Predict the structure.
Amino acid sequence: MKILKTYKFRLHPDKNTLSILKQHGGNSRFLWNQLVDFSKKYNEKHKKFPTQSELQREIINIKSKNDFLKISHSQPLQINAQRLTKANFNSIKPEVIQERKLKIAKAKTPKQKVKALNLGFPKFKSKHEERDSIFYPQNFKIRKSRIFVAKIGWIPFIKHRNIVGTPLTLTINQDGNQWYFSVTCELNLKEKPKKLIQDANIVGIDVGTKTFATLSDNTQIENPRNLDKHLKKLKREQKTLSRRKLVEKNLNNKKVKISSNNRIKQKNKVRTIHRKIRNIRTDFLHKTTRHMINKYDGFILEKLNIKNMLQEGSKNLNRNICDVSWYEFGRQLEYKSMWYSKYFARTSKFSPTTKKCSQCGNLVDMELKDRTYDCPVCGNHMDRDFNASINILNEGLSKLNTIGTMGIYACGQSTVVDWVKQEKSLIGSNGLKPIVPSEASAFRQG
């Protein structure tokens, strides 16, 4: 089985190489902004977006007028035409248009209305964000702890793991004052035979904010609350940043406000804290999903409409939802399940897994503050998250009995993994019975 796997490493450029990287990243950003401006004007005139070939011809015109673009390699510049074409296509999808109309209807101030009108459309990139990237589909080399890219040269990096597979593409990314590169490789994985569903150790997973995840075998994964641990320091540094003023300077006979040196230093401090939180969160997710892959034979997750939850929730609840990264957790667990031949399925987002009793199927209205599920019909008394995880498991098992499992590559490409005929024939008409927990050991306060 061929898969795509991406490895990320931190670069250590010297001062000369650093200035070259900034120049190349700035050239790619400048060309993107020029293409976005051209695309907007083209759309206003012709009532349609330019094709990729038209954007590529416009790149030639832009390069002829701006000689500094010739410093960069042609491929990192040409990729902007492909990305902009895809972004334009995504902006006219029915679901994006519907979301844009809803935002426009809800907009109350002129600023909100302008933001709603531009929802989904390609945006200009700012130099002050310091998030430039340089993409190389070829013309790069990796030797031990150095990489070579065309028109930049050799750059040392921290090699903390071996690169396995055939390198396909390389992307250099800027994160403030740090630079990274990601290399996407193609490698072959030996497919391992899956266990029969009757013999497999499959668990249902109910995610939350109080407890990160509750499994149907009554295992609880505690929420690390990465943001809360650094929130006090982050607020203090952001408060200091808000006091740093912009300095007025004359550029081309125009008064322009730019950041002072102290403001730039303070901005880097805030960015460093955000980077630390992000790295800790990513490390937790990778370690948790890897541990679960080693322990279980299959996983069933609930589909969540996270956007609606963020719109309806309070400020503190929204911050906690964003901190736990449910989507990234499911994404990692999904592609790792495919890599290591594990079962994976998702339940419907409209299933009443929280309200439904796992023993008798009765529905009980539950509020967010209610942490215990009490069924008035059968007397079921257990933790609400544990009850939901059992409902998720029972619904997922019925799905696995009728359809194949869905898996994705780490880069986002999806593939349907069909079951072996032998497994289909061995699943009898009886199927799997719903799991009913014991009365004494079922309850565990979350």
User: Anything to note?
Assistant: The radius of gyration is 26 Å. DSSP finds twelve helices and 18 strands in the chain.
